[in-house]
Design brief:
The structure is a single chain. The chain is α+β, with helices and mostly antiparallel strands and 109 residues long. The protein has a domain of 64 residues. The chain has 4 helices and 6 strands, in the order βααββαβββα. The strands form 2 sheets. Strands 2-3-1-4 form a 4-stranded antiparallel beta sheet. Strands 5-6 form a two-stranded antiparallel ribbon. The protein is globular. This is Inhibitor I9 domain-containing protein. Pfam families: Inhibitor_I9 (PF05922).
Length: 109
Amino acid sequence: MAESQGEATVHIVHMEKGETPLDEIEAKHIEVLASVCGGSHEKAKELVLYQYKHGMRGFSAKLTPEQVTELLTKPGVIAVNKQGVSHIHAGAVTTGGAASAGVNLARNA
């Protein structure tokens, strides 16, 4: 996918816990994000704001709408939600503001 054209905003990407050892989680997150950044690990590292490794697995990053859509198709990605108040329902994470804008930010694991 080419570099995205929409405006980038902060999102939290919730990943499956899986079997990845703690010391390899950050590299796994960068690999997934690089897949929507033209394969550039350097660009992916620039976009990541925080990595979650304990209470949940995932990361926060500045993402365009196109990158969000593409991330949702990647194995291991459970949900992507825009930074803000989130509601958890039966394993899915949704954001009220995005839902009202017609954006589906969660998928079933």
